[in-house]
Amino acid sequence: MLSLRIAIRFLRSGHGQTVLVILGIGVAVSAQIFIGLLISSLQLTLIDRTIGRSPQITITSNTSNVYFKEWPSIAIRTQTTGLIKDLGVCASGNAIIEHNNKTIPILFRGMDANAFNRIYKVGPAIYQGQWTTSANEVLVGRELKDDLDYRLGDNLVMQTADGKTGTYKIVGFYDLGTASLNKTWVISSLATTQEFFGYGKGVTSLEITVDQLFQADVIAAQIKNVLNNNNLTVDNWKAQNQELLSGLQGQSTSSLMIQIFIIVSVVIAIASILAITVFQKSRQLGILKAMGIKDRAASLIFIFEGLILGFLGSIMGVFLGILLLYGFSYGTTRPGQPALINITIDYKFIALSWGISILAGVLAALIPARRSLRLNPIDVIREG
Amino acid sequence: MTDIIELNQVDKIYPGVGGTQVLSGIALKFRAGSFNSIVGQSGSGKTTLLNIIGTLDQPSHGEVLIDGKRTNLMSRDQLAELRNQTIGFIFQFHFLLPEFTALENVLMPYRIKQNHLPKEILKRANDLFEMVGIAQVKNNLATRMSGGQQQRTAIIRALINNPKIVLADEPSGNLDTLNTEGIYKTFRDVNREFGTTFIIVTHDRRIAEQTDRIVEIQDGKIKLDIQR
Predict the structure, then answer these.
(1) pLDDT digits (tens, 9 = 90+) for A198-221
(2) Which among A5, A297, A378 is the nearest to B57, CB-wise?
């Protein structure tokens, strides 16, 4: 195609300028890719470290009886939705600890050790001691330990509101990264708490994780539908964390705005460069028009120039943006500590950004392409 | 022989305060296959006349017919097609594209016409390069040639589509006497072999005297029209 051939030759003949334009587009696109991926990685890291380390859906009783024994059938029916990742049953209750002249309210939580590990990632959070899951053994959080000055092997004595007392051996200390949990949760096996609170084989909640975190409300509604039981409440993290959700949405919106501004600047940059090119190549355009090139083909030269510049600039931008992201992650990670963000490369986002940048190049080229239509060959011929 | 070019009462006035009349009441006909020259002093309007014949410029009044078609009724695309397929231009300043080689410049009018380049066109281009004696520089960029080589490349470019009309504006301006002779011999050969109509604008009477018809322009009007 002649227009493409001429466009390539024009770009090659002014290679210094072409390289600069590609660099300019590349840097702008890299900023867009960097910011987009950084924000999405940050969000995913934040979600993983908050919502991702707790159940996204919980099923509890809404009757005066806090525990329910028909949980095996509820669990089976919940599984039939096919939308859940993990399910654990928990028997919890409120109690108080009196120790060293202090009285502290706690939540005594019993759960199958494997489920605790999968849903709350308790295993990796134990920084001292270990969890043997034997009866009458408990794990205590960092803040509670510090507050009451516990040591491994100490006995922890707790009491329920109706006066029932239990004594448990402390076998480990954990840090879930949230002070309120570390201070209030005392963790033990399911059988231990069932026995202490007198639930028999009953549990107080079914705790569920899902793969699609942001679909938790929809999945919760489906579970509620499947269970069809008015005595049960199906709650989800989105309903419980409105502020976090709006924070995440605000972050997404601001990220989108920044990206839109960058794309607009890319369009303006390409358009102004190509407008200069039309001016620079007006002599050549005049000659081509005198030789009979049609207006459409003449305009296509600039469209192709925009397409090529957008294509090459955005390829460079994508690689540069990803490189920047890894550089950022490397630069902000302190030795011996987990990375500030877990990098997630969203290929759909990259493909979309790439496509938009190319489109921006073509859009930007429309302005000079229209200008080229107005160029009259006689003006060039007369000038000599 | 039929008329391939016809100008009826063509005026050209450049806008401005009072307007500058460059051509006034030009009525001319050129027969197909004829070999003509337009002479006149600098500023007499001969280049403007050539540009109007070549549809690059439009007359202020009057009409121009090329190959029987009224050019004032044609669209921009139709005019472009007419210039590409019917007319070959040789300008005073060669007007080659500096980004392309001599051969690529020569093939440009053909590529504008159609994308596919047949072998016979490439052969024709090579033969023409041989004929005007610059085959050794055909792969040079246009900027890497002497003025004479550039002008001869522009001449081959004008001939590549085998146009019915060749319009040449001072084509030998950059050439020495020997080369000038060679160029006019080439024009004559093409004129005889293909029946191409030539209109050559020149201020050199010696060149004009070698053509079959001399039209002299003075102050935008036809002063003399000598047919031999």
Answers:
(1) 999 999 999 999 988 888 899 999
(2) A378
Quick check: A12 and B99 CB within 8 A?
yes
φ, ψ for residue A129 (rounded to 5)?
A: 80, -165
Quote ipTM for the complex: 0.91
Q: Are residues A286 and A265 in the same domain?
A: yes
A345 plus A264 within the same structural domain:
yes
Q: Which domain-ending residue is among A238, A258, A283?
A: A238
Cβ of B80 and A287 within 8 Å?
A: no
Q: List domains and CATH numbers for chain B.
A: 3-227 (3.40.50.300)
Chain A from 288 to 347: CB within 8 A of any B CB: 288-297
- Domain limit, last residue, from A207, A238, A269: A238
Are residues A115 and A204 both part of a single domain? yes
Interface mutation target, options B71, B99, B141, B159, chain A, most CBs of A under 10 Å:
B99
The first and second tokens of residue A243, run together, are: 């502020």
Residues A234 and A254 in one domain: no
Q: Which residues of A touch B54 (CB under 8 A)?
A: 290
- The reply to whether A22 and A74 lie within a common domain is no
The alpha-carbon gap from B81 to the nearest alpha carbon of chain A, in Å, equals 6
Any B CB within 8 A of A381 CB: yes
The radius of gyration of chain A's CA atoms, rounded to the nearest angstrom, is: 32
Say whether pTM exceeds 0.80.
Answer: no
Nearest 5°: phi and psi at A383?
-65, -25
Q: Is A384's CB within 8 Å of B82's CB? A: no
Residues B5-32: tens digit of each pLDDT: 999 999 999 887 677 888 988 999 999 9
In whole angstroms, give the CA distance from residue A205 to residue B28.
Answer: 103
- A334 shares its domain with A194: no
Residue span of the structural domain in which A194 resides: 54-238
A216 shares a domain with A81: yes
- Cβ pair B83:A10 closer than 8 A: no
- Determine contact, residues B142/B150, Cβ cutoff 8 Å: yes
Strand partners, B29: B6
Contacts of residue B90, Cβ cutoff 8 Å, sequence gap at least 6: B151, B154, B155, B158, B166, B167, B168, B169, B171
**How many domains is chain A partitioned into structurally?**
2
